[in-house]
Amino acid sequence: MASCSVEDVLAKAERDEAEKLKGITVNKELDLEFDPGNLLAFDKNRIDTREFKDGKREDFLRSLARDNTQLLINEIWKLPTERVEEVIVAKLPEPTTLLPREKPAPKPKPPTKWEQFAKLKGIQKKKKTNLVWDEVHKEWKRRWGYKRAKDDTKEWLIEVPEKADPNEDQFAKKNKAKKERVARNEYNRLKNIARAQKIKVPGMGLAPTPKQSKAELAQAVNIAKISTASVGKFQDNLPKEKKPKNTGKRRKFQPLIGDFSSEKQKQLDLLKVMDSKKPRLDITKAVNKQMREEDMEARQKNKKDFGKKGQRGKMSGKGKGKAGGKGKGQGPKGKGRKPQMKQGKR
Amino acid sequence: MRPLTDEETKTMFEKLSKYIGENIKLLIDRPDGTYCFRLHNDRVYYMSDKILKLATNISRDKLVSVGTCFGKFTKTQKFRLHTTALDFLAPYAKFKVWVKPGSEQSFLYGNHIMKSGLGRITENTAQYQGVVVFSMADVPLGFGVAAKTTQECRKVDPMSIVVFHQADIGEYIRSEDTLT
Known about the structure:
The complex is a heterodimer of chains A (346) and B (180).
Chain A: H1 2-24, E1 33-35, E2 40-42, H2 57-77, E3 81-84, E4 87-90, H3 113-121, E5 131-134, E6 139-142, H4 170-197, H5 214-225, H6 260-277, H7 283-306, H8 311-323
Chain B: H1 6-20, H2 24-28, E1 35-40, E2 43-48, H3 49-55, E3 68-73, E4 79-81, H4 86-89, E5 96-99, H5 101-108, E6 113-114, E7 118-121, E8 130-135, E9 140-146, H6 150-155, E10 161-168, H7 171-174
Parallel strand pairs in B: 5-8
Antiparallel strand pairs in B: 1-2, 2-3, 3-4, 5-7, 6-10, 8-9, 9-10
């Protein structure tokens, strides 16, 4: 019995050894195609359908996977190795299989303004060297950018031109010009992008800038006001808001020698309208008349106290006052009469 | 040169009506010919159509004056009446002021009229009413604005101003250069 079991054990050990050995060498009809860069192995061998039956399927798949992985690892062992922190690492080569794109290919961008112009004029792009010899500093400097060869803003001496104001700061002027160029470049770049993506850019003065001047704000307000369906007709004004001057429309006048009769008619109509707007009862005139009548009465009283002198004059005065009557006070006075003012009355 | 716009016509008529009231109709609608107002270099000129047609032959920069200058529009579109309009406005004036011979000279030098120089004044003159100033011989001397109503004129002391000076014929000599 013991010898049987020993024999069994030995046999079993031998089988295991064989299994292990079998592992390293794999026989395949067709050799596999390897792409060690992607850790990829293509197996183009035919599969025996008999081995794919139920029951045997799992075992078959497992053994197939094991064989192919073994072959792949054999391939990896063939690659150059290096030691990284006590671990042997194989250096993978470049992957040879082309993987399909994850995202769709980018559409070609529309040409920028300059590109359009260059194409139109036939201007070719000229290759320029990156470094330029700077005579002043006696070294090679880059053509543009940080520490460039001919830096306009770094000049230590600027001659004041003849026609310039002597109190003007030429250095500040150069710096300002540089800033303006940079800003304009940036603006054009953004415009190119907007054109490429077909984004609508608001006109001058409407795009929000960090610090807007009074005029720009006023312009923005005016444009916002007329941006309604009825072009700003029903927008209320603030209490002290003034109407914008120079709305951009050119004034149109009547022709110099137009129809004289129509001109006359228009003016007469205008006069008629003006007359109708005047109040029929002029308040000041009414007040004046009232005052005059009161004056007359006061004088009457005085005269009575004083005596009979000038009573006749007084009577006529009273008559005049009464005749002053209704309406605008013209009445019997009319135009031609020379109304008198009594001087001596105190 | 161009015709007046509606707003300009309105402003001007308002100013004229202060002096001559409804008689502006007589200026517009004349039996003896068609007369019109035209604007040139901010000044308003009153001329007959014949003169207008002749004036069109002169270039704008060379044209100095056409017909009679009634006044000018200031920068803020207010209308200022000039002495040169006197001849047309005097016969149609609604409210008149007569000046004593003694103070004629003073008025012609550009001073206001004081109560002591006042000869006569039309009845019912409102305060700040536009008036035409005459000498005692009924010669038109200029324009003014009544500082006091006729009523008040009777009561005030002799040294107070009754008529503010606006324009007078002395300006023909004093401001020869600025008149057109």
